[in-house]
Amino acid sequence: MRMSKLFVQTLREFPSDAEVISHKYLVKAGYIRKLTSGVYSYLPLMWRVLKKVENIVREEMDRAGAQELLMPFVQPKELWQESGRWDVYGRELMRLKDRHDREMCLGPTHEEIITSVARDGLKSYKQLPVNLYQIQSKFRDEVRPRFGLLRGREFIMKDAYSFSTSQEELDKEYENMAQAYRTIFNRCGLPTKMVQSDSGAIGGSVSHEFMVITDTDAGENDVFYCDDCNYSANSNHAVSTLPEAPTDGREYNLIETKIVDTPDTRTIEELCEFLKVPSSLICKCLVYIADSEPALALIRGDKQVEETKLMNAVGANEIRIATAEEIEELMKKNNYSARAGFIGPKGINGVRVIADNTIKELKNFVVGINENDKHLVGANLSDIRYDEFADIRLAERNEYCPQCGKPLKVTRGIEVGNIFQLGTKYSEPMNAIYLDSDGKAKPYIMGCYGIGISRTAAAAVEAHHDEYGIKWPLAIAPYHVVVVPVSTKDEAQMNTAEYIYNRLNAKSIEVVLDDRNERPGVKFKDADLIGFPFRITVGKTLQDGKVELVTRENGCKEELSPDEAIERVYKIIISNTEQ
Ligand code: ATP
Ligand code: MG
Description:
By secondary structure, the protein is an alpha+beta fold. Residues 109, 140, 142, 151-152, 155, 157, 200, 202, 415-418, 450, 452, 454-455 line the site of adenosine-5'-triphosphate (ATP).
């Protein structure tokens, strides 16, 4: 490819709406163009990268024994009703109607479709286990599309679904996929951490995420991990044991159970300051809205609620903290007028109350009683109301590993892949059954396995860049080499550049010849920004029969003869791409 013909427009500035580096560089270097919020065109350079990621994924999925198919992107409501998800999926599901007023949706994921495909084709245990996958665009009407390709509304995903006859068979396929995922991300030049996670809207029990660890804002997940053992988990799933903290109010003179005045103590800090007690002795009571119904969460005053855990404990599909108006309304209904800060679980009726496990340990503590400027002190479990105990607590740095007791560490991660054990969550309601060897009809035991193709490419930019631009890992770079003649007017330079270009092309190395009549500085800048792994510069040293080979990854420069340079990059590229 000649640069003069390559469809790419590099920009002088970063786009104004870009917050993270991959978004900035992918737009500036001419890889993607925004059409509308969270929807991008993949321009030729980007499409080359995406196809490379796809091919690595395809090769490893095929090697792991999965079979590729392609399912429709538009899906009928009826299938989603069969699984029960039409009413619970929420607003991320893009719903539409056809000309006959039939309701449809754009596929955010394909459990329903694949389950219906399977039940038509997989009727006997003899056909199982099977793993089917596709690579396709998905649409999710994300609340906050941002970060370019990292969180789009339309994005490319590989989704695979396995069908087994037993839990053991599923466990085996799950491990098979986990192994394939490690290989895929390593081949993409992206080391990942496999972490335990919540299974969210897709459902099921066991699930893991593959995280690219990053210290930038692009990491939307907090990952807790332990260096001493192999524990690692997404914050929505991480559990921890706590360092010692006062949990008996007796030490602070909260002996008698009584109501005391606590004027204007709206925050935990103000309340602690006023009563001269540590926050670990407060029973914090928070009002949430779970699927439009209020719910209360109780947790020790020095700890935070993890909303996904709370959502699971309540059994809701969506959860958020209540607004001041919603709290007021709830109080009114129960004939109170308390403001946030004075709310307590007792006396609020018809509302689920989930108490965090930290509450179990408390004695002689402080709790709100739905009266402004008052609290109950010296309170015990018998003085409050709760429906159940659960772990709804957000783990924190320096709490202890649940496996080995050493201090937990936390880092940020970008989720590039996800594996779930679904069990019979879809096969049972959708009556997707096979005949087992004993002649009995049984639902498939399913697993599902996703990889964000476009997110993986963007995560590679997050992991590989410098202040000048992208440093693509060789395996997914759009082109391997750029050949830059310093002066296109210099015949000798142009001839050598053409020679190198033709020789590399003949060896099937993906190469761009920068034949533009531009200043060398401009060409070098673009080469660094676009992120070609190798640059061969043909300039003044040609007089001594030398060209310059620059490796983008480490900036290493070598003077070599044109043939040596060709041989050098050829060898590196071949050894890297042979699998
Ligand atoms: P997230 O928690 O980041 O919203 P998810 O858990 O909902 O993602 P899955 O349903 O597990 O996502 O989808 C499988 C993979 O698809 C994810 O691991 C991720 O790589 C990718 N993915 C999901 N949502 C998006 C998105 N909005 N933009 C780009 N890639 C996405
Ligand atoms: Mg996920």
